[in-house]
């Protein structure tokens, strides 16, 4: 399995907790459920509710850099909670240059998005209202990262997934009545016969 990263522009909350330590906390939603992504290159994607098992160590990095660690569920500096609309997080930022940079950048709004890395174990590809949609049914959440630029692009799509999407897009579309729609590219537009009749009438005048 290939590590896949996804980006969502989701509101982040930064607060300085009123305790003696002056703890700096970053909060928000790391993973949305049942929300369609942008176009990933011929298909969209959504994460099914309950797709992630959170009972293992998950880390938070600064912009997906594993050398710049912001927190971990193992040390309880990163707390994750599954809610109806997705996985929410609370991150106690470390008193390091990376942690302080993260606090300042998110406070100013320079960094305003969250991205996550996952290993997909089970998914399904369907056609929804004429669009190809991949639904992630089960995956391992590896890390979450505050990011300035989206990692939600088709450059992160594996060759195996790309081939599956391409194969799916060439299959015939079956309507609810069981009728198989043909390729309409070769059909003559209905406006052409009407235009020809108008030309014939003009010649008769």
Defining key terms:
205 residues, alpha+beta, 12 strands, 18% helix
Could you walk me through the main structural features you see in this protein, from its secondary elements to its overall organization?
The protein is α+β, with helices and mostly antiparallel strands and 205 residues long. It has one domain (4-173). 18% of the residues lie in helices and 41% in strands. It contains 3 helices and 12 strands, in the order ββββββββαββαββα. It has helices at 97-108, 159-169, 191-204; strands at residues 4-8, 12-16, 24-32, 44-47, 59-62, 65-72, 78-83, 86-92, 113-128, 131-147, 173-174, 180-181. Strands 1, 4, 5, 6, 9 and 10 form a 6-stranded mixed beta sheet that branches. Strands 2-3-8-7 form a 4-stranded antiparallel beta sheet, with helices on one face. The longest helix is centred in the C-terminal third of the chain and has 14 residues, at 191-204. The model is unreliable at 151-155 and 172-192 (pLDDT under 50).
């Amino acid at each position: 399995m290939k590590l896949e990263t996804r980006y969502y522009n989701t509101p982040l909350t930064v607060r300085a907790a009123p305790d003696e330590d002056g703890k700096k906390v970053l909060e928000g939603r790391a993973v949305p459920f049942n929300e369609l992504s942008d176009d990933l290159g011929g298909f969209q994607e959504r994460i099914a509710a309950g797709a992630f098992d959170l009972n293992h160590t998950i880390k938070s990095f600064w912009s997906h850099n594993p050398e710049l660690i912001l927190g971990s569920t193992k040390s309880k500096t990163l707390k994750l909670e599954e809610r109806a609309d997705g996985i929410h997080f609370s991150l106690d930022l470390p008193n390091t240059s990376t942690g302080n940079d993260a606090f300042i950048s998110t406070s100013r709004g320079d960094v305003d998005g969250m991205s996550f890395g996952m290993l997909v174990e089970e998914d399904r590809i369907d056609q929804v209202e004429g669009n190809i949609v991949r639904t992630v049914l089960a995956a391992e959440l590896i890390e979450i990262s505050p990011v300035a630029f989206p990692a939600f692009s088709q450059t992160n799509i594996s060759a195996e997934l790309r081939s599956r999407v391409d194969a799916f897009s060439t299959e015939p579309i079956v309507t609810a009545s069981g009728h198989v729609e043909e390729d309409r590219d070769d059909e003559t537009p209905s406006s052409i016969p009407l235009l020809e009749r108008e030309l014939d009438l003009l010649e008769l005048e």
